[in-house]
Amino acid sequence: MAAVLAADRRQAQGVPDPITSNRYDSEQAAGLPQEAMLASLGCGNPTALANLNAGEIVLNLGSGGRLDVLLSARRVGSTGKAYGLDMTDEMLALANENKRKAGVENVEFFKGEIENIPLPDNSVDVIISNCVINLSADKDRVLREALRVLKPGGRFAVSDVVTRGEIAPEIRQSVLLWVGCVAGALDEAEYRTKLASAGFEQIEIEPTRIYRLEDARDFLSGHDIDVDALAPQLDGKFLSAFVRAVKPKTEQSCCSPTCCN
Length: 261
What we know:
This protein is α/β, with parallel strands linked by helices. It is 36% helix and 22% strand. The chain has 11 helices and 8 strands. Strands 1, 2, 3, 4, 5, 6, 7 and 8 form an 8-stranded mixed sheet that branches. Strand 2, helix 6 and strand 3 (107-111) form a beta-alpha-beta unit. It is globular and about 55 Å long. The chain starts with a helix and ends in a 15-residue tail after the last strand.
């Protein structure tokens, strides 16, 4: 929600949004409702980067009314299925209306929290998400839940905002005016650690957009902030990234003295 509000403020002021803009091309959007495009305020396009195959089951965490579920449904085809999970009735109503307009049958939206996914163990092939996990107050639980519902060998393939290097709290607060979704963004090294602790392997974090000082200048300058003074602590330290990981195909044995307690 913070990301949406920040984007709305920039749009009202006529300020281009470097995070939520230009993520879906016209070919991807063809035949899908304009309302789904307008609701697609994420930080990337996980459907363009995730390797989805016909017949697979895909789960979108924090799906909202965005395009990602509908695009996933196209790619997995009639033998596959795309689930969308969201916690608000408003977004679920919009998502179901977009589904109806698109005429897509292999899609199901349901209500729930990403910290408590209402699906059984080992039930999906791929988890995608678009700038949602970083907003959770309990990311460790989200990642454990993601691992639980994935089938052995299942893939975690999400777009998220991450940080790079140490950032002072006051700098993060200033940037929060510009980009609402950086509030809980993890450092990329910490993200890797949390994924590994949850039980994932083959972890990769691939930057897709690195935000520069000039991206924030127009917006932050209107809030009595000395943007140039922020430059050394801001430039290049916030980025959108594609985060990949895999659930092990076999149950791993306990190797820690405390993990089985």
